[in-house]
Every structure is written in C-alpha cells, then in structure tokens.
Design goal:
303 residues, mainly alpha, Cyclin A, domain 1, 58% helix, globular, Cyclin/Ssn8
Length: 303
C-alpha cells in the first residue's frame, strides 16, 4: 500500500477513491512516512500533527465554521502528511490550506482573504488583526494558493472524506436537529441525543491524532459511541452496534488501544495539549460488554 502511494507520485484520475486506500498499517505510520525519511522522529510527527489539528479547530472557531468542516480539514492534513513531510511543509501552513480546501469541498465558502487573515493572525500570535497592506497577509495568501494546488493533486482531489456525524446519527437513529414532531420513543430520542452530543467532543479528540489513517470511519464512530454511552451510563440492545455499523469488537478495541498508545506521546507537553485525561476511561472488557449489549438495555429499539 505505502509503496504504491510513493511510486504513484501525483495520482492518475480524480474521482472515486475508496476509503480503504487511505488506511495504513501502524508500522507504516510509525516507520515509513515522508517525515521519517527526513529524520523527524515518530513522536515528533505525532505532536506536530496534533498541533496542526488544534490550529484547525481554533481557526474554524474564529471563522465561525462548523466542527464538521474542522474534522474534514483534519483528515486532509493527516492524509497530506502521508505523502509530504513536515520539514518541507509547516503544519500551520498545511492546516490553513486544509481549512480552505475543506470549505470548498463542503460547500461552505469562506473568502480566501478571511481565511488568510484569521490563520495568519493565529499562527503569528498577533493580537491585532492582519490587513491586506501587511506583507504577512500576502505571504500567507501566496502559501495557501500554492499549497491548495499541491494538496488537491497529491490527494487526487479526494477531499470529501466520509462524515462521521452522519454515520453516528444514522446509527443512533436520530436527526441532526430535534424534530418538531413528538418522537414515539422519547426515551431513545433523549438518551441517543445525549450520546451524540458527547460524540462530537470525542471526534475532536480523535482527530488530533492520525486515527483516521489506521481505521475506517465506521470503526471510529463505533468506538466513539461506546465511549459516549459509557460516560452517559447508557447501554444498547444485544448486537446493536455490530448490526448498525458492521464492525467487529476486536477492531474497536484495537482502535482504542492504538489511540491510547499515540495519545501517550502528548504527556510530555503542557497540560492543555494532553489528551488521555479528556477521554472517558474504559477497559477492553468494558468496551466488549457495551458492544455485546444487554436485554435490559437503557435504550431500546424503535419499532
């Protein structure tokens, strides 16, 4: 898989790339990325990726963009760094470009000048706004325009990854917004919505690390739902998660364990960068029981 990506240079074709083509082995991520070839240590790469994603969410908040846009941008960043290295392309610059590309891909347009001004100000740590007469503005504009073309080419124009929110909402059988029609199953509606609200927070945590390069979106959604259900004190009917998301409990547990392994790298940083203390604690056994479900579930299937 990795050898094929390297040999392809800029891919031929522009459409219909299966998500599986963006799934790598942990060993490939650990040993064979372009950054490793430039003598950037694995831990250093993980931390820089994380800082790039934090930059994305901070910038999206300033730009009044949704978390969905931020998740798309984070995925683009992680994929980009499987093809290019962190020494040549700084993570702030790639993050800013990822936001701009994600806005176009999700049809949530923001003017280039607005993206430039916000991202430049955050990256440089300036308190005052950046105007179009500033040399920094033009430098950052040129960077984003140039990197946008490179990113589109290197990612083979595959810039609309599967949306985890949609998968999670479908799995929980709820709409994005509460319906004005009274639900026939109020217990399910209220508890499933509480689970989903916490899922949005966990998705942000997961996106800080390149979990999307190692597991399918369905697997990540399944783990997110189980962790959110544990925090909420909810349980599911028997086999509910497996039936809805078609993912095995072994894959979910592996996803959880690898995330924890990568998140441990953040313990060397200041507390506001660390991740593990923000994740609901759960053992493999607890995840297995939640996955199996129970007949006396706190949630029950809608007829």
């Amino acid at each position: 898989m990795w050898a094929q990506l390297v040999e392809s240079g800029i891919f031929d074709g522009v459409i219909d790339i299966p998500e599986s083509d963006w799934i790598f082995d942990y060993k490939e991520l650990e040993d064979e990325t372009p950054s490793r070839l430039k003598n950037i240590a694995f831990q250093d790469e993980i931390l820089k990726r994380m800082k790039g994603v934090l930059f994305i969410f901070n910038s999206c908040k300033q730009l009044r963009l949704s978390r969905s846009i931020a998740l798309t941008a984070a995925t683009l960043l992680h994929r980009f760094y499987m093809l290019e290295d962190l020494k040549t392309y700084h993570y702030y610059e790639v993050s800013a470009t990822s936001i701009f590309v994600a806005c176009k891909a999700e049809e949530c347009r923001r003017n280039l000048k607005d993206v430039v001004k916000i991202c430049c100000r955050i990256a440089t740590g300036k308190n005052e706004s950046i105007d179009e007469d500033d040399k920094l503005y033009w430098r950052w504009k040129d960077i984003i325009v140039r990197l946008e073309q490179l990113m589109l080419q290197r990612l083979n124009f595959d810039v609309t990854p599967i949306n985890p929110y949609k998968i999670t909402l479908n799995a929980l059988m709820i709409e994005a917004e509460p319906s004005v029609i009274i639900s026939p199953n109020k217990q399910w509606e209220s508890q499933a919505r509480a689970i989903f609200q916490h899922c949005t927070y966990i998705f942000e945590l997961f996106s800080r690390l390149p979990l999307c390069l190692l597991f399918s979106t369905q697997c990540i959604c399944a783990l997110t739902i189980l962790l959110s259900a544990k925090k909420s004190g909810c349980t599911f009917p028997p086999n509910y998660i497996g039936d809805k998301l078609e993912v095995s409990v072994n894959d979910i547990i592996s996803c959880h364990q690898i995330f924890i392994r990568m998140a441990m790298f953040t313990n060397v940083l200041e507390k506001h960068y660390r991740i593990l203390h923000l994740l609901p604690p759960a053992s493999s056994e607890e995840l297995g029981k939640l996955y199996e479900g129970t007949e006396d579930s706190s949630l029950y299937k809608q007829e």
